[in-house]
Amino acid sequence: MTRTYALIAAGAVAALLGGTAGFILLSDRADRFAGCGGGQVAGGGDLIGGPFTLMREDGVEVSEAEVIDDLTLVYFGYTFCPDVCPLDLTRNAEAVDLLEQRGVMIDPVFITVDPERDTPEVMASFTDYLHPRMVGLSGTREQVEAAKSAYRVYASGPGEGDNYLVDHTNLSYLMHPEEGFLGFFRGDLPAAQLADSVQCFAERL
Predict the structure, then answer these.
(1) Degrees, nearest 5: CA angle 136-138-144
(2) Cis preceding-peptide flag for 158 (omega within 30 of 0)
């Protein structure tokens, strides 16, 4: 009986220490990036991001590890979007250029939520117009749904006919291969402020 109690007590202490270590790591991360801005997710950043396989605009199938191999700004939308997506992606492209002028390189990525219309060829034309380094990702409906799920992205559709609209989450996610999700940015944040926030994160990585 005494031995049983001792084992239970030892397990409880180990669990407590493990929890303490996890808390210290989370606290260290929060302290390190404090003041950088970017929205956070209730429940923790581990809820955002994860494995996916998608078709790059050049027709090559890639994984999330191949796409997010450095500081990366990820946006979900669609090329037929009449207003929000072009504005958000243009803002992201402007921020990328501002950051490059400051010596900070960040990869802009655009993942479609409308793969039925957004073929790799369509994505290539769209992203090349917005920024020479922007990567467009499409794929099968199943592949896109998996990516949406990993990033907790909502999107309606597909609709009927050729001219349907897609209601969708319009946030830009700042990701890093080691740190994972760093923060999200809404579309109303100006390019200069977005660049300032991303630079803050970059300097503390």
Answers:
(1) 130
(2) yes
Residue ranges per structural domain of the chain: 1-32, 39-204
Is 85 marked as binding a ligand?
A: yes
Range 136-164 average pLDDT: 93
pTM of the model: 0.84
Q: For residue 200, say whether it is annotated as part of any ligand binding site.
A: no
- DSSP lists the bridge partners of residue 51 as none
> Does residue 6 surpass a pLDDT of 60?
no
Please give the CATH topology (third level) of the domain spanning 39-204.
Answer: Glutaredoxin (3.40.30)
Side-chain half-sphere CA neighbours of 192 within 13 A: 0
Query: Containing H/E element for 152?
Result: none
Q: Tell whether residue 81 is among the known ligand binding residues.
A: yes
CA–CA distance, 10 with 4 (Å, rounded to integer): 10
Checking 192-196 for CB contacts under 8 A at 24+ apart, the result is 192/95, 192/98, 193/37, 194/91, 194/92, 194/95, 195/95, 195/98, 195/99, 195/102, 196/37
pLDDT in tens, 100-131: 999 999 999 999 999 999 999 999 999 999 99
User: Residue 122 has which token pair?
Assistant: 């369509």
Smallest CA-to-CA distance from 144 within 78, 79, 54 is with: 54
